[in-house]
Amino acid sequence: MPTALELKTKYIRLGQRRIAKKDSQGLVELVARAAKEFNAITIDKDCPQVGVVGEIFLKFNPFSHQFLGEQLISRGIEVVPPLISPFFFQEFINVEAQKDLCLSDSNMPNFVVRTLYKLIERRQKQFNRAGAGFRYFRPFTNIYHEAEGVKGIVSLAAQFGEGWLLPADITAFYRDGVKNVVSLQPFGCIANHIISKGIEKRLHDLYPELNLLSLDFDSGVSEVNITNRLLLFLDTLSA
């Protein structure tokens, strides 16, 4: 029986071939096959869940966050990884918000922006249906629903870097039952460090059961410091 890592490597390789051929339908079919194969090797087990949010480079580059995911997995934690698509789809929200908040003089009607997004969402739904065959599948989300989650927390005018997307990711995790979240940000980064610190109190007021850890990274941060803070966080995990 193959391991999860072997299946991951296999389907990434097969997926690269489909992408190179611009075979979108073949990619959807590949996702459906992968869902079945992963289901076949999956063992049902209840583990504490930890979601990961933060600055895009830190979230997706294991070296930059000192292999945080591997540390959590080695301690019996289910890591709930972030999606990369909202980072790009947030622009649909930004275009409308800039106009509504008088930050832009764009004449593009909102219905045009939303129509373009619906075309993309139609393709997302195909992948969601294909991936739903895996019982732990986490689907692509609707960026407009994500934006609704930041009301009362931060303005949609906060568009530099992740900006409003950071609290949107956290609230989306919370709605999905993931109450333990690690936020990764470069120290002093306005779009992440400042916003992450600034919204903590409001998030805890709105979501009392949220267990949020903000980890700051810079060139001088020590591995020991990160590990110590992570261990303290793990001692307080919510169910």
Structure description:
- This protein is of the alpha/beta class.
- It is globular.
- The protein has a 4-stranded parallel beta sheet with strand order 2-1-3-4, sandwiched between helices.
- About 55% of the residues lie in helices and about 10% in strands.
- α1 packs antiparallel against α2, α2 packs across α6 and α5 (about 85-100) packs antiparallel against α6.
Map the helices and strands.
Elements lengths: L3 H17 L3 H18 L7 E6 L1 H5 L7 H7 L3 E3 L4 H16 L9 H22 L11 H6 L16 H11 L4 E7 L3 H9 L1 H7 L4 E7 L5 H12 L5
Parallel strand pairs: 1-2, 1-3, 3-4
Helix pairs in contact: 1-2, 2-6, 5-6
Quaternary organization: single chain
Contiguous helical run count: 11
Shape: globular
What is the helix fraction of residues, given as a range?
Answer: 40-55%
Mean pLDDT across all residues, rounded? 87
Main β sheet profile:
4 strands, parallel
Beta-strand fraction estimate = 5-15%
- Uncertain regions spanning at least 5 consecutive residues: none
Number of strands: 4
Give a brief outline of the structure.
The chain is of the alpha/beta class and 239 residues long. It is built from 11 helices and 4 strands.
Output the keywords.
11 helices; globular; single chain; 10% strand; four-stranded parallel beta sheet; 2 domains; alpha/beta; 239 residues; 4 strands
